[in-house]
Input
Amino acid sequence: MDKLPRGRHGLTREFVAQNQRERLIAALADALYQRGYDATTVSLIGKLASVSKGDFYKHFESKDACFLAAYDDAVETIRERVVSACASADEWAVGVRDALAALLELLAGEPAQARLVLVEGLRAGRGIYDRYQEALQSFVPYLRDGAPAPADGAVPPQATDEAVVGGIASLLARRVIAGETERLEEFLPDIAEFALTPYLGAAEARHIISER
Output
């Protein structure tokens, strides 16, 4: 986010407040990426955002509150990208593959956001960890909706969907921690196969992936 011009600028209070809030959220993500949760302070966030400590507290009551706002914004951005990719596909499996491709492209292009969502959400305390779990659960219905019935008629239990979503998050988190965020798109074949195999079998999953 760009800083506002100094002095008189004719901007409304509402615009200034929203601009400050967005800069603080972006600054928190950058601070987490650079130093991690424990070393990120309100003063550091304000410095990176060019927002005073007093103005920080006009928007957020604490670092945790700022984190939750940033986390929710990041998850919603991911959701919009994933849902859009799913909606443009004619088949469920193609939609899953394309949604994962869109997810990896987004995260690879935004390393700070990737770390915020996949890594720091596990380190920032119980309340924020609960928000991480809620975010994972919110993606389960997208995976379940439209999934084909297997040839033997045995529909995978809901725990399968939860395990797939959680497994994808875990796989991506390990890549981010390893410093491979910008290479995430390279791992699409492995991650898509992991996601599709429980529903289609390994051979059909690989076929869907190869068509991309």
